[in-house]
Amino acid sequence: MSRWLSRGKSSRLMGSDKGGHSSSVYQNVKAGLQELYKSVLLPLEQEFKFYQFYSPLLTDGDFAAKPMVMLIGQYSTGKTTFIQHLLERDYPGLRIGPEPTTDRFVAVMENDTEQVVPGNAAVVDPTKPFSQLSNFGNNFLLRFECSLLPSVILNGLTLIDTPGVLSGNKQTSRGYDFEGVIQWFAERVDLILLIFDAHKLDISDEFRRCIHALRGNDTKIRIILNKADMVSYQQLMRVYGALMWSLGKVSNQHKKKEEQARGEKKRRDKQEEEEESLSLIDIMVCRGDV
């Protein structure tokens, strides 16, 4: 460990001159972080086998990855149609229908030509940030693919289309850790879109577990009520209230706030009792009772 604390080695790795000032100039922040990781952190992670007990080593694809947006919702809520409308065209492998049509995770990415890359090939591609998905096994890789196409929209982001969340016995036959994959993407994407259908607001058990898997990434979540233009204004108010009620039972945030409020009230009551006791003691001292 002491060799990592050597001043000379640290200065050399950080690109510092004799005066201790950084002499490295990078074209952008991404290039600087990538170079510092390779020169400073990567040797340290390899020395202590950090990748075996915490997280895998970062690749060039992790640094080159564009911001990602993940769409989650129950089947036939309009996730794939949302992507189609955003791109103003179909992407390779797209299927739309009233039944559960999207049965796999699809990373919609920019490319010069249209192409569908299977999951087994995508996870070994060093230019893509999906190498860690190999930990979920071959059953998942058979349900994962990258859809490549030329698009101005995709120049600055990557869209992650997810399988429609099922209900009943259908949800037990996926063959891989669906909630684990959702959590993996949730930790890495920049935005999570929860899409609900205005005509079916019931939250299935699997969808409930998916929402629980998003915990810790609350600031990334945005809720979209799709097909709201197909109901009247009065119906929309009722739908909105029903949606908030359903989400409230799932999130448990209101319970945490109530517990915090009760704890704060107890603390204030105890503080007031202590202040009253101190005031009583001061009065008794002034009177000479003690």
From TrEMBL:
GO terms for molecular function: GTP binding. Residues 63-290 form the Dynamin-type G domain. GO terms for biological process: endocytosis; endosomal transport. The keyword Membrane applies. PROSITE patterns: G_DYNAMIN_2 (PS51718). Residues 1-22, 255-276 are annotated as: Disordered. It comes from the Eukaryota. One of its GO terms (cellular component) is plasma membrane. InterPro entries: Dynamin_N, EHD_N, G_DYNAMIN_dom, P-loop_NTPase. It is found in: Endomembrane system. The keyword Nucleotide-binding does not apply. This is Sarcalumenin eps15 family protein.
